[in-house]
């Protein structure tokens, strides 16, 4: 540093400050971009699961009425109207279930989905049994089974499905909270970086000022001594900058 000119030292200080602030800005920008990319991927996956689960629930709600009519009514016209549509919706729900099962689910989601599948299987088995009983002509028994056995099973199925949908909603809220926390952390890190840069500026400025002030003070004192007639001053400096050159050029006789 002693061999650098004062102007070079000043420009070097400016360059270091610019690089330090640039590093802080680049870090914050890169971290923010990485978080946004990850958030977009995770949010899209959550939206997909929630959309599929919500569609599953809507189809189930609509199909309950059809299935109750098929289990309790022996009217040919009603069966002709509802049976094909009920079968189509059941197949559509099965496809939705397969699509959700193929997704990257958490352990909690897998457990909840397994419960939904179990309760749904129970509903489908009871539906078939009750329709068989009604088709055999025992409409009274079919009605009792629909009210006393099928309805509670249907409620368990719907509750399990609602719980799975709720998990997706809670996952979305958790993701938003996580992103907010990460954003706050990024701001905190950037703030810490700015504080570190400011501290570096203060320390660097103190060093630079001292490197200029001390030799300048020595030169001033030497000049005062010479002006007072003291020509015995020993001039020696290892500096090669402007101050060093000014010192060695100071007349001693």
**Helix share bin:** over 70%
Give me the count of strands.
0
CATH topology name of one domain:
Four Helix Bundle (Hemerythrin (Met), subunit A)
* CATH class category label of one domain: Mainly Alpha
Describe the structure.
- It is a single chain.
- The chain is mainly alpha-helical.
- It has a domain at 18-186: Four Helix Bundle (Hemerythrin (Met), subunit A).
- The chain is built from five helices and no strands.
- The protein has helices spanning 6-72, 76-101, 107-135, 139-227, 242-248.
- α1 runs antiparallel to α2 (76-101) and α3 runs antiparallel to α4 (139-227).
- The radius of gyration is 41 Å and the shape is rod-shaped.
- The two termini are 31 Å apart.
- The mean pLDDT is 82.
